Amino acid sequence: MTLLEARDVRVEFASRGRRARAVDGVNLAVGEGEIVALVGESGCGKTTLARTLLGLERPTSGSVRYGGVPLAYSSRALRAHRREVQLVLQDPTGSLNPRHTVYEAVAEGPRIHRLPGEGALVAEALSRAGLRPPERFFDRHPHELSGGQRQRVVIAGALALEPRVLVADEPVASLDASVRGEILALLLRLRAELGLSALVVTHDLGLAWNIADRVAVMYLGRIVESGPVERILTSPSHPYTRALLSVLPESPSPVVLGGEPPDPTRIPAGCRFHPRCQVLASGAAAEAGVDGLCASGELPVLPSSAEAQVACHHASASARREARTETEAERL
């Protein structure tokens, strides 16, 4: 069952007299009990998409759906939505009020939503987040905690509302390597114990490999490749995905992309990745006869699907060539 879904979502902002297309046609679904990683470099639109799914940004077009029902933007509807879909921020130091105790930080959500049994909810949330016994942490302030403990408090603040979906924006980016594994293990345990779903926003494909069921790779406002994490990360089809994977320590040959991501107010024609594409630059696209398409041929918006899919002229041409070869082999 699909819980949280973006359907052809577009989000634009005014920028120096032009319109910046931060999210430019995205279909993405998070199923019940599923962890989906949204991956891409800084500025690709993944945080804007996450904020839109939370109801913090309103799409210019398209819709956000929860449980199959389009999200309404009245105060009451947003209040109900944010109880079901909770945000976990990347910087626990910045997201926690230094003057509030741990108890006050975790109790803020239940108080806003006027939930009964505040003390029990706070204690249970802290316990589920791995801070035990919870009473020992009630009167502590953020500066008295380690980085991992602060991130657990942030997660407990989300769990106190008993949500069904967590949207975690770079949840371990500010943590030491030794603590990162603990937080990722916590998210997996919460999925196993509570059936929680999660959208994990990250630039780290290694994190996606360790935690996600599916991965969606985003570039300049669009999903360019998506599918099961094992399929996408062991056999990527899009040149951008291969470049992101190449920076992992075990990669034999790093791919250095030229330049910066294009200005979202001036998205290139054709494949939006083509000005930086190593396949086009190497001549492989010309050999396949798709170099003209790369520079001018519009690519379709990928649908929401559990199957592996890619928006790339060269990858599509390669797939067609392989299919023809298999057909010919079967005939023989």
TrEMBL record:
Q: Does the keyword Acetylation apply?
A: no
Q: List the keywords (alphabetical).
A: ATP-binding, Nucleotide-binding, Transport
Single annotated GO MF:
ATP binding
InterPro entries for the chain: AAA+_ATPase (IPR003593), ABC_transp_ATP-bind (IPR050319), ABC_transporter-like_ATP-bd (IPR003439), ABC_transporter-like_CS (IPR017871), Oligopep_ABC_C (IPR013563), P-loop_NTPase (IPR027417)
Outline the extent of the ABC transporter domain: 4-245
What domain of life? Bacteria
Question: Key word S-adenosyl-L-methionine present in the record?
Answer: no
Q: Which Pfam families match?
A: ABC_tran (PF00005), oligo_HPY (PF08352)
Into which family does the record put it? Belongs to the ABC transporter superfamily.
* Protein's name in the database: ABC transporter ATP-binding protein
